[in-house]
Amino acid sequence: MTYSLEGEKVVLKSRTQEICTSGSVRGLVVDFRKGLAPRPTRRERQKLKLAVALAMMCGCAMALVVGYHVDPIKASWSVHTDTIPPNNGVSQTVRCCWDSLSYVELFCGDRGAGGAYNVEVRDVATNDLLARKLNVTPGQGHSWLRFEPMEILGPFTKGKDLTIIFTRAGDSIQYYYQEGDPYKYGFLSATSPHAGQDLAMRCYWHPTVGGQATAV
Fold this sequence. Notes:
Layout: E1 2-6, E2 9-13, E3 18-21, E4 28-31, E5 35-38, H1 42-61, E6 65-70, E7 78-80, E8 89-95, E9 100-108, E10 117-123, E11 129-136, E12 143-147, E13 151-152, E14 161-168, E15 174-178, E16 188-190, E17 192-194, E18 198-199, E19 201-206
Antiparallel strand pairs: 1-2, 2-3, 4-5, 6-19, 7-15, 8-14, 8-16, 9-12, 9-19, 10-11, 10-14, 11-13, 15-18, 16-17
């Protein structure tokens, strides 16, 4: 149970519903760790309001922006990779529109033998490794697998083309894709480029304050 401030009232709430206001339990509020506790003073209420305002400001400043988002929409639009390099991976080229990459997600199908996933982000022109996340264990099958936190190894330059590469050691990847070229700035590759297909994947970035980057 928690209390919150609504004007000058203290409102008691459970996880699912409002229980009562300060008018019916005057002078007392409920703290889930301590039980009954004194009603907060005016100064304490002001501090709480300030903390909420700061939290909202920080949330806005740290909001993530979608840099790429393609969903799986058909069961038939899925393929298994091989288990042996170099045919054990799948990749998607994207146009960089971020300053600081936060994380990426791949929609994974069958868990297979449960082998861990790896992801690398490379510059298409130079093949420089810019970011990676290794040894991510899959959860349940046919769900989004998050690669976080990303290890950042190089700077990102907005407007450059990048390749996001997923592999598994000794295991196959069942990946999903969309037909019809839903993402206009890149394409899926698995052993060879697949024009008009894009990988079911998401990537998120932190915009620089005052920056001019825009999501695509």
